[in-house]
């Protein structure tokens, strides 16, 4: 009997010791299984709001090239798609008919000059004879009238010659501007009509314009003090690109609000050095409001969506994640402004709710939010405006 009591007592003691051992090892085991999560303190930065508009690029100068004289194309002197300079020969017409007209007028002018010289001589003689009363006054006036007629005839022929020489010059059709030329619409050997036949088109390529419309409310609240002289900076993105890689400025603001749409027409200009911008291209324009305010900045991936709400996970007491509703603002590269819900000093899960959720204890791995390549305001180095927005 005593042996059984001793055995029972030993068994109870062993169970008690085992229970104590389990209780002592449970917390350490739990700590070993905590999820390691990257966390970071939110940034507070002075920022400007960016406004985005769509547009199509336009060339400052576009020419539909038409001939000034009718004729037959004898030669095409350009390669289609080339850059051309003002004054470069593009088309050459058969100039023989025009040269014949010039030669004929030259001959007529020579004849008119001889007749004029004779009329001058007779007019001078008439003056002398009148003084000696050798001829009547009427005869002297008649010779003077002939002189005036000969002068008028010569002037008329010289004007015709000038017009004929211009027509002869216009048989060489040159580029009126610097730019990029299109294809030849009419080829060698075809007859063209002055002022009607469109030979080709040329667009200037040193600059490109981008017109876009800003609604009246946005203009009054964000850009009311902007003028064309202030050269408000803008950045542009072409379709199919990720970066706003082109920098320009506003150089025209319309003089009135469009009453039908409630918008103001604005134009940005972009210098074109590498022939990468083409007239008619679709593009997106971004420009920053002049007002600057401090806002909380977090990685865009840290923001989760819950039905209609946006939220982030903050690190609370005992490294437990907490659910925080937020209101988001502008995006700046891979970062996002938060206008409400967070404050300076808050620590967040930088990768968002992908692997964790509210109420979950974590093992924090502290990192820093990198904002070195993001422009928050226009006061930053302009080269950083090409960051991905």
UniProtKB/TrEMBL annotation:
Topology within the bilayer: Lipid-anchor
InterPro entries the record matches: MdtA-like_b-barrel (IPR058626), MdtA-like_BSH (IPR058625), MdtA-like_C (IPR058627), MdtA-like_HH (IPR058624), RND_pump_MFP (IPR006143)
Chain segments annotated as coiled-coil in the UniProt record: 102-167
Domain Multidrug resistance protein MdtA-like alpha-helical hairpin per the UniProt entry, residue ranges: 103-171
Gene3D superfamilies: 2.40.30.170, 2.40.420.20, 2.40.50.100, Helix hairpin bin (1.10.287.470)
Multidrug resistance protein MdtA-like C-terminal permuted SH3 domain: residues covered: 296-352
Entry keyword annotation includes DNA-binding: no
Record localization: Cell inner membrane
Signal peptide stretch: 1-21
Ranges where the Multidrug resistance protein MdtA-like beta-barrel domain occurs: 230-289
Subcellular location, principal: membrane
Keyword annotations from UniProtKB, A to Z: Coiled coil, Signal
Residue ranges occupied by any Multidrug resistance protein MdtA-like barrel-sandwich hybrid domain in the UniProt entry: 63-198
Similarity remark: Belongs to the membrane fusion protein (MFP) (TC 8.A.1) family.
Protein name, as recorded: Efflux transporter periplasmic adaptor subunit
Species assigned in the record: Pseudoalteromonas aliena SW19
């Amino acid at each position: 009997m005593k042996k059984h009591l001793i055995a029972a007592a030993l068994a109870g003691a062993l169970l008690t010791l085992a229970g104590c051992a389990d209780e002592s090892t449970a917390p350490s085991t739990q700590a070993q299984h905590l999820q390691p999560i990257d966390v970071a303190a939110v940034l507070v930065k002075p920022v400007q709001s960016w406004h985005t508009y769509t547009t199509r690029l336009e060339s400052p100068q576009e020419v539909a090239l038409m001939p000034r004289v009718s004729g037959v194309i004898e030669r095409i002197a350009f390669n289609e798609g080339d850059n051309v300079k003002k004054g470069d020969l593009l088309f050459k017409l058969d100039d023989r008919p025009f040269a014949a007209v010039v030669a004929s007028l030259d001959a007529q002018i020579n004849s008119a000059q001889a007749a004029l010289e004779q009329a001058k001589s007779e007019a001078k003689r008439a003056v002398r004879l009148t003084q000696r009363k050798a001829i009547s006054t009427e005869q002297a006036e008649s010779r003077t009238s002939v002189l005036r007629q000969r002068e008028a005839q010569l002037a008329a022929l010289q004007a015709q010659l000038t017009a004929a020489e211009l027509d002869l010059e216009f048989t060489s059709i040159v580029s009126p501007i610097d730019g990029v030329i299109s294809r030849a619409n009419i080829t060698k050997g075809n007859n063209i009509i002055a002022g009607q036949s469109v030979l080709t088109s040329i667009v200037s390529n040193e600059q490109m314009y981008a017109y876009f419309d800003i609604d009246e409310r946005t203009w009054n609240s964000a850009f009311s003090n902007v003028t064309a002289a202030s050269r408000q900076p803008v950045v542009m993105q072409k379709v199919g690109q990720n970066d706003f890689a082109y920098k320009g400025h506003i150089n025209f603001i319309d003089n009135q609000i469009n009453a039908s749409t409630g918008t103001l027409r604005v134009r940005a200009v972009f210098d074109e050095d590498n022939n990468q911008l083409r007239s008619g291209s679709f593009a997106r324009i971004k420009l920053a409001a002049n007002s600057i305010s401090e806002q909380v900045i977090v990685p865009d991936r840290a923001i989760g969506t819950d039905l209609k709400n946006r939220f982030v996970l903050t690190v609370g007491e005992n490294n437990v994640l907490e659910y925080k509703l937020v209101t988001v603002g502008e995006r700046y590269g891979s970062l996002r402004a938060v206008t409400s819900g967070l404050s300076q000093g808050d620590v967040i899960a930088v990768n968002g709710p992908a692997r964790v959720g509210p109420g979950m204890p974590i093992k924090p791995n502290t990192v820093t939010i990198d904002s070195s390549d993001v422009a928050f305001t226009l006061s930053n180095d302009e080269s950083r405006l090409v960051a991905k927005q």
